[in-house]
Amino acid sequence: MPDKAQMAKAAAAHGAAAIRETIAARGAANIIVATGASQFEMFGRLVQEADIAWNRVTGFHLDEYVGLPITHPASFRRYLWERFVSRLPLPLASFHYLDGEEDPAAEARHFGAIIQKHPIDVAFVGIGENGHLAFNDPPADFETEEPYIVVELDEACRRQQLGEGWFPTLADVPRRAISMSIRQIMKSRRIVCTVPDERKADAVRNAVQGDVRPNVPASILQRHERCALFLDQPAASLLKHT
User: Which one, 39, 92, 101, 107, has the greatest CB density within 10 A?
Assistant: First the structure.
């Protein structure tokens, strides 16, 4: 199994190839971009990929906290600007940032209307320690057709954000977020799922080798025909070889 750097390089190369192929076929591409510590290395590689016409790419934000200003270190809008958008060699055609500060329900509806006009070609996602996909914590809603929803974050999810160093105390971690829904993620033509670290090993095992069920939201990826999963050795350490 690869180490984290090899995993990130392979995931970025796979996603970049999918973007290039889409632009070659249609003249443009729409992508979903995840956040979190698990995506650091992959993004570092992706922005270095050559021969991508980023000015023909439209990006969508996967999820964002409710009530968190963009100036906060944990803001995903800030994360995406600093670690992805601002580092690209060409400006994107557009990037749609979720804003959870004012009216999250209205923002979810607004984004839902936009994304329905932009079918997603490549989705870059991860898996949470509790098995969540985006901010769809267990038990996730597998049925809603709404593209974006306002969700309650469970304690395991909030503790993960604390453990990754984004917040000083658990009380500081927001309790709600705007998240792309499970069904909307699954509409993506291709999914690139990057999951490093031993702390994700149990979630990876349950998602990959367990039953598909709302209590393990990421298990739904088993049903996607073009989902590529990239793991490092620690994240894959509990998988049973068959």
Answer: 39
User: What is the tens place of the pLDDT at every residue in 56-71?
Assistant: 999 999 999 999 999 9
Among 107, 116, 193, 104, residue whose Cα is nearest residue 147: 116
SS (HEC) of the chain: CCCHHHHHHHHHHHHHHHHHHHHHHHCCEEEEECCCHHHHHHHHHHCCCCCCCHHHEEEEECEEECCCCCCCCCCHHHHHHHHCHHHCCCCCCEEECCCCCCCHHHHHHHHHHHHCCCCCCEEEECCCCCCCECCECCCCCCCCCCCEEEEECCHHHHHHHHHCCCCCCHHHCCCEEEEECHHHHHCCCEEEEEECCHHHHHHHHHHHHCCCECCEHHHHHHHCCCEEEEECCCCCCCCCCC
List the domain boundaries for the chain.
4-231
Assess if CATH 3.40.50.1360 describes domain 4-231: yes
pTM for the structure as a whole: 0.95
